[in-house]
Description:
Layout (H helix, E strand, L loop, with lengths): L19 E7 L2 E7 L1 H19 L11 H4 L10 H10 L12 H10 L12 H10 L1
Amino acid sequence: xxxxxxxxxxxxxxxxxxxARREFPLLNRTFAIDLxxxxxxxxxxxxxxxxxxxxxxxxxxxASRSKKAADTSPRLRGYTLTDVREWAxxxxxxxxxxxxxxxxxxxxxxxxHPDAAADDPQxxxxxxxxxxxxx
Length: 135
């Protein structure tokens, strides 16, 4: 004896011979839901309404930071913070993979690469204070 499968409408929980799995596309994806004929009609009307809305809308995108701007330092000329990180790792100097590169590491990089020094150098008192604090 074959068993009859009874589908239940996922919206109103009704049972009936007209309940069926309905697939529909939305935003480049495909969804499936069990619906009666009446709720399937409501879904189609809602999708048509959304289509009209989307035709008259525009997508809003989050502003992104430029990688170039995020990867440079005003104290470096012709080099990026990625260059500083790579150099630091080669020198076995601890440096974070992301985020702020410590001033001490940048100063050591500039000392090793004199051509990296920016046109307007930092005041001499700051590095000297750092050297005294580190000793």
